[in-house]
Amino acid sequence: MVVVALALLLLAVFLRNVDLRGVVGEILRARPEWLVLSLATMLVNLAIRAWRWQYLLEPLGSASFSNAFQATAVGFAASSVLPARAGEVIRPYFLARRERLSATGAFATIIVERLLDTLTVLLLLASYVFVFGRDMGSANPVAFAAMKGLGAAAAGASLVALAVLFFLARDPAAVGQTLGRLARVLPSKFARLLAEVAEKFATGLGAVRRPGRLLVALSLSFPLWLFISLGIWAVVQAFHLSVSFTGSFLLLAMLVIGVAVPTPAAVGGFHEALRLGLTQFFDAPNAAAVGAAIVLHAFSILPSLLLGLLFAAQEGLNLSRMRQLADEAEPGRTA
To answer: Which of 8, 76, 248, 269 is a Cys-bridge partner for 258, taking CB atoms 3.0 to 4.6 Å apart?
Structure first.
């Protein structure tokens, strides 16, 4: 109920003082060729995500591109209809049903993915703030300074998290043995279970143990986020708004902040983040910004939602079962 109330609150903020008739008019006037391009990038994004994940999974064992792609689509579909990004838990479950891999280890690779994503978005944002769009600061200096501060803080947190993962990944067996000593203060069965899960999680961080492999994974993140930026830019162009391609890097960072709000399908947070980015930094008319946010959000979730539900149905998973899997994400059940 809390996440639903939060989503409704954000939607109310997003739609305040909005001329809905004007928004509909802006959507109807959108250029279809740019919309088609944006929609196509969404499918490319899923493929690149699956390719990168397949590479990160190699230290655990081989996984086919087809199964990685289907699991990725199912995970994003689950996050679209369930709160708190439940798809991040369901995704390794789904893959483990098809491949001889530990779901706990596969979940660890998703943590690595998120860190790589954060670092890539921050590098793209920095390229815009300090190179391509450094003159934008005069348009809204307070907001521009805030984005710089948030970017610096997020970069620091990401590097600290990466260092922690590197420490854990150095010796998975030692991690398990260390936690196994908790048997002195915890029930021995629970302590063994916790140690086993921790060791499998650390094993899943195999890419972190090898800097070369981690750099390759980071390099795969750039085409992913450049295509995501292309999808954003194409929608902005469809709505006749004056934003350069590199300007989409700033909008991308805004959207990352917006989708961090744990509402189903990032409803509300996504919309308001894009509206703010377009109106505050690029002087876009409010009706056009609202229309672009609605269309881009639909494009962002529909391809993965439809594909994910199809793949889940083929595996015998319905929404109720996916919700149950997310609720059962406890130590030992992802082994």
So the answer is: 269
**Residue 41 lies inside a defined structural domain of this protein:** yes
Beta strands in the chain (DSSP E): none
Structural domain harbouring 247:
21-327
What is the rounded average pLDDT of the residues 164-179? 61
Alpha carbon distance 123, 243 (integer Å): 19
Does residue 222 sit within a domain? yes
Total-model pTM: 0.82
Asked whether residue 334 is domain-assigned, the answer is no
Number of domains composing the chain: 1
**DSSP states of 149-215:** HHHHHHHHHHHHHHHHHHHHHT-HHHHHHHHHGGGGTS-HHHHHHHHHHHHHHHHTTHHHH-HHHHH
Instruction: Kindly report, residue by residue over 43-78, the tens digit of the pLDDT.
Output: 999 999 999 999 988 888 888 999 999 999 999 998
Cα(280)–Cα(137) distance, rounded to whole angstroms? 11
Handedness of CA 61, 66, 68, 74 (dihedral sign): negative
